[in-house]
From TrEMBL:
NCBIfam families: PRK06062.1. CDD domains: OAT_like (cd00610). Its cofactor is pyridoxal 5'-phosphate. The lineage of its organism: Bacteria, Bacillati, Actinomycetota, Actinomycetes, Kitasatosporales. GO terms for cellular component: cytosol. Pfam families: Aminotran_3. Belongs to the class-III pyridoxal-phosphate-dependent aminotransferase family. GO terms for molecular function: pyridoxal phosphate binding; transaminase activity. Gene3D superfamilies: Aspartate Aminotransferase, domain 1, Type I PLP-dependent aspartate aminotransferase-like (Major domain). InterPro entries: Aminotrans_3, Aminotrans_3_PPA_site, PyrdxlP-dep_Trfase, PyrdxlP-dep_Trfase_major, PyrdxlP-dep_Trfase_small. This is Aspartate aminotransferase family protein. Keywords: Aminotransferase, Pyridoxal phosphate, Transferase. Signal peptide: none annotated.
Amino acid sequence: MTPQPNPQAGAAVKAADRAHVFHSWSAQELIDPLAVAGAEGSYFWDYEGKRYLDFTSGLVFTNIGYQHPKVVAAIQEQAATLSTFAPAFAVEARSEAARLIAERTPGDLDKIFFTNGGAEAVENATRMARLHTGRPKVLSAYRSYHGATSTAINLTGDPRRWPNDLGAAGVVHFWAPFLYRSPFHSDSEGQECERALQHLEDTIAFEGPATIAAVILETIPGTAGIMTPPPGYLAGVREICDRYGIVFVLDEVMAGFGRTGKWFAADHYEVTPDLMTFAKGVNSGYVPLGGVAISGAIAETFARRPYPGGLTYSGHPLACAAAVATINVMEEEGVVGQAAAIGERVLGPGLRELAERHPSVGEVRGTGAFWALELVKDRETREPLVPYNASGEANAPMAAFGAAAKARGLWPFINMNRTHVVPPCNITEAEAKEGLAALDEALSVADEHTV
Ligand code: PMP
């Protein structure tokens, strides 16, 4: 579709937004949101007719791109037949979505509790773990993001927790492995893995194993920097959790549904958690949906005792119909394989090649359609291009990098000193190369801020 410029309509959208929309995570008067006129596949466009290649997949959720005709049609059809229904009924779209999800999740994660998004999935997973074990505490990693509701934001390790940290009982943070900025000062993946597992064991010992309900980890931490764990780490955590009767929760809200080139990131590591949260890619975000995949043992806890939690819109038919259509499209079009291939053939080699030429790139990490470039002032010292959690003037180098990318028609994902390359899983090779070329030019702007 060719975007038709309509600046007047854009101005009206923008004016109403500025007057009445209260935006997430923002100082309301300091933001200038782009008015979006439309989107298709890997692109969206504004009312001036300027197109952007979306290297962010929205907030890492449009795994099959925008406006896939089969998913749009499925939502329309569901709206025409049964647009809504309360959760305590068996509804075709809901049961079919649950079946398709359960068939793809690892191990015996065969029961699906539906939510409206990721944070509610995390809330319910931690509640299930607490009720299942009768224990109060949950351990989570410092470099993590688990959502913005009350428990989920307390579990989150990144600085968005700080102003929200009102001392919720029972959340304890620990360090997960990350060799590039090793909290354990390790110099090899093997050492990092060993030390991180020892640190987790020590944390559990000093907190009291009998007080710990769950350990929650993102399989591959996303927002915090796409840090693929060293081989053996997740299997080690699984083993520690088993030893102490602790529920192991993997948060796959961002990494799940094809993003990493497998259905779930856990498939890369051959680990099965007791609970697994998902959202985003489950239906490419066309209608809000998330959920928890539940193991047989935890499902058993609530077989004859009611689960004390629920949501009005749990398993909403429109959202579930979108999930059914999305999963079917992913199978028919081989989208999971496409993510693996674009990572192996284009994004991985292309980003590594950029790293060779641009002194601002400290490290390239990732897999599938899930990559991060860590931008630094100095490759030797690894000093980040901007300080941790920089804002305003201190963040100017990243802002300049972002502006340069947008000027070249690339919409980049930026978090602190990183840019994440997280396009739709079905981005074409030509589109990915177009994005890499724009990134190349934008990185030259970042290079100006290196030593
Ligand atoms: N967990 C992870 C790993 C996430 O990436 C996110 C969202 N970025 C969430 C939970 C929260 O999801 P939501 O914003 O849908 O509540």
